[in-house]
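Operator note (shift B, R.M.): manual run for ABC transporter ATP-binding protein requested after the automated queue skipped it. Running by hand, logging everything below so the morning shift can see what happened. Input copied straight from the record, untouched. If output looks odd, do not overwrite the archive copy; leave it for review.
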Amino acid sequence: MLSLEGVTKTYRVGAFGTSTLTAVDDVSLDLAPGEVVSLIGESGSGKTTLGKTVLGLLSPTKGRITLDGERARPGKAYYRHVQGVFQDPFSCYNPVFKADRVLTMIRNEYFPGVADSEWQGRIETSLSDVGLDPGQILGRYPHQLSGGQLQRLLIARALLLDLRYLVADEITSMLDASTRIDVLNLLADLKARGLGVLFVTHDLSLGNYISERAVVLYRGRVVESGSTAAVFGNPLHPYTIRLLSSVPRLTSRWGGEEDTASAEVPEPDDRKGASTLVEAEPGHLVRRTGGDTDAGTASLRSAR
Ligand SMILES: Nc1ncnc2c1ncn2[C@@H]1O[C@H](COP(=O)(O)OP(=O)(O)OP(=O)(O)O)[C@@H](O)[C@H]1O
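Run finished. Output pasted below as returned.
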């Protein structure tokens, strides 16, 4: 189990770093093998900061991350099991090196003693696991491959390790619609084989498509979490309701009667007074604040 316990990340900002910005505030969540948890929130809500903290690229200001009960220590042993794939596959490759160099780096770092023939076999298996034809990938430069192929190659690279958890941060946002669905289906296959995925997205429909649990982040705090069916089917926090209201429907047109994207919805203020996550129904947590009222939630609902 990969667990986050009260993780907080504060950045120093302003001239000379004199002030602070809390990007992630007391977040706790568990990710089990074979489970996809989506971390949903608008731009600036702290998703990437949280993902980088899980990957040890940032250290938490407070709280801790554990892998099977042991405090996570970024290093070879941790990265054997926990890896990340990010939004922009092009920036992950050096344009002057052939794309398969990312695979060679894994060999040099983790498996220097493995014989050439065995390594070749492992590469072929990991590429075919992500639906890539080695003949079409190996020996090519990044600019000769599509975004979808590069993203799959990064996942294949992770599969060369004894991968158990993947942080997938907006990995489909730079892909076209049909490639996006291919990559999502690939994640679903890997999940079926026991991989735990933290699926970071601002796109509610993707979160709904792929995950069984959803965690909604607002200004660095979890405001609602639970099964995806509960969070999407019966959203309780004003922010979740507002997010769901802002998804344009295929049948609605801007400014039309069914236009929910431009509906005026009051800004929920989570910083008002003390707030806690309460269990509204089994497994479905919602943050209740001094500023929240049932009447406010009801008026937001009616705007959907
Ligand atoms: N290195 C940094 N130094 C200072 N502030 C930062 C830094 N990185 C992120 N922030 C701030 O932390 C907050 C959360 O940023 P983060 O990138 O984690 O959000 P996000 O939800 O991933 O947004 P997006 O979807 O736009 O990537 C934002 O207010 C951002 O400006």
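Quick read of the result: The two ends are 37 Å apart (CA to CA). The first strand starts at residue 2 and ends at 13.
Leaving this for review. - R.M.
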